[in-house]
Fold:
Amino acid sequence: MKQPLAPYAFVAPAMFLLLVFGVLPILVALPVSVTDMDLAGLADRSRIGFVGLDNYRGLFADPGFRQALTNTGIFALLGVPTVIAVSFAAALLLHRSESRFFRALRAFYFAPAVTAIVAVSLVWGYLLNTQFGLLNHLLAIAGLPPARWLSDPVLVKFSVALVAVWRGTGLNIIIFLAALKGLPREYLEAADLDGASGPRKIVSIVIPLLRFAFSFVAVTTVIGWLQFFDEPFVLTKGGPLGESTSISLFLYQEGFSASRFGYAGAGTLVLFLIIAGITLVQLRARRPGADH
Structure:
């Protein structure tokens, strides 16, 4: 029996973009990572030399890369559970009512996800400003000393992660809302007849039935935080002293600022393997047959 072509036609544009902007750069980075390619090498291929695994050895011996790797891990530990918890809690609250006010709130929560990062950086830069920022103004009203939100080596991680959490919850709220809309009402009605409380229904019914949604959000959120770039780039440029430099920002600085394309290519492949490994572990952690 002849297979219809319509499904493939719908999938083809997305697959093309994935291949061009996802798979192809990784394939290009592989041969580049074993060379000493720089700007001169782009202009004249004869100036590109084969260095084997030297870039990889230098990468793991580089304290800057190890610091960026540690920072990225801290950002992920701070951001991933916070984004998931806040998104789910907001989705539960928004799901309780279909009034116009709550429908407007859905658009309000989604706004940060589609707001330009330049505008976000300007607003949060003023909010977190040490001398004139609103947050320090509120601290002063409370009689507390001002905080160095973006210049303290420890506090900067929480500040940058806060902005990323604010930007990252919108899309996940929509995903959880869609999943909540698809819950079978029979289970919740039976729980009401049994006299189950609201928290009990959430823990025993809602969360188990949303296992697939939680899994999807967890995988995509982890991938996003391992590729963390926008917020540290626009707010701190990786400072102070590299304390907010993520792996992606480190690779950008090495590749486009220092013109060490071979070195950055090696780091790109290392980051790809880290993301692929963690994603595979997450997918294998899901019990087969648990989601329908």
Q: What stands out?
A: The radius of gyration is 23 Å.
